[in-house]
Amino acid sequence: MNTTGLAVRFKVVIPARLGSTRLPRKVLRDVAGKPLVRHVWEAARASGAEQVVIATDEEVVAAATRDFGAEVRLTAATHQSGTDRVNEVARAEGWDRDVVVVNLQGDEPLMPPALIREAARLLADDAAADIATFCHPLHAVEEWLNPNVVKLVTDRRGYALYFSRAPLPWKRDPAGSADAATHMPPDLAYRHIGLYAYRVGSLAQFSELPPGDLEQCEALEQLRALSHGFRIRVGVTQNPPPRGVDTEEDLAAVAAILSSRR
After folding, report:
1. I need a surface site. Which of 47, 101, 152, 231 has the fewest CB within 10 A?
2. How far apart are CA 37 and CA 104, in angstroms?
3. Per the omega criterion (within 30 degrees of 0), is the bond before 109 cis?
4. Using an 8 Å Cβ cutoff, are 55 and 89 in contact?
5. pLDDT greater than 90 at residue 200
């Protein structure tokens, strides 16, 4: 991960939806003495972003975030994704189409500020890319087989070819072994990190597109971008952040980590 060079200018929008199927009201849950979303906001502020906006569809979230000094914007409750919420903010703020904006999910309190900044830099430094994101090498077969862990493959230039919940790529075994571990190519297996940087113009274009068959099949929004010819630049980090908060177990683990930092 490149941490040198000139400073990059970018915005961060944090979609913070109150409703959650697996962990209701998680963005407002107390974690180490603060609402979960406040930890995300603090990481975004530490990244060097010139503006950080929390986007929510609930006044209770807006009120809670104003209490700790965040800039917040109420967005439509009809949005199907955080990306659409980010696009509404970009339009309301009147950001120029070339502005780089990072979509940082409201349940990612352990996202390193440096990775947020580098996602923006990755896009800013590549005029051919529409979107930038990150991945890291997978070494555990259990993660590679886990459908909740999104895998990806790239071309030789570092652009995404495909994302999948399936184990990807699958190493062909001429011996016909039934052991899945023998099919994992450690040098080619990567987990996607759900952090995105967009140019505002590409973000607006993406948000106008209907979900495609691949996106609906895998329940992966980024496949809409690939299906419509968007170029997604993928950076590789050897120091991945922990996964976000989706369950009570995740919440407890994150709370333990954040409490230990105090």
Report:
1. 231
2. 11
3. no
4. yes
5. yes
